[in-house]
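Kindly inspect this one:
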Amino acid sequence: MQFKKLAFLLLFLGFSSTAMAQMEIGIQFSPTISGNRFIAEDRHNFEKSNSALRLGVGVVGDYFFSNNYAFSSGLMYRSKGSKISYTYMVESGDGVVTPAKETDELTVQYLEIPLTLKLFTNEVAPDIVLYFQVGGALGTKVSGQVDQKKVINGEKTAKRFNVFETSAVLGTGAEMQLGQSTKLFGGVTYLRGLSNIDNYYKKQLNDKNLAIKNNGVSIDVGIKF
């Protein structure tokens, strides 16, 4: 019985060391040009006023199941959103209804788990390989602001946004080997929001078909160990 336990322990340790040898963990910094896109009726005249520079930072991990293929995940903190403008109707005291234009700056912070597949080339130069990344990401809201305010009219602005977000991820980049186990990497990632982030405007404008989604392009730089 003791021999079986010892054999099982050695087998477990051997499997763990093999798994760890196939895993590369690193730190990633991702400044992002963030924007929004809209699904709304034309009468609201929703449009993106301008893009915004947002922050992304976190821990990433690549699990290699062959020399050129890896499952990539991690935990990222990402800030998203931009300035948007829209039209709403205002009724005056004499019953006349006129359109008015409003501009809001949306800022929503998420904790995000990427779930992607990475495909690596062979060396294109000494110690340098290219990679291509495709998959998705699951995010949960940490906080939110409108016009850099956490409270408007006695209500927390974070409540205006849905708790969860899903995104499609598409990226490419390069890695450089430094020493035996250290790698520098850099690339570009396109983040396309798939789910509606809005929990406010469709109620405010009485339009259940309205949806606001995040978009972004990030410049990724980091180091893996």
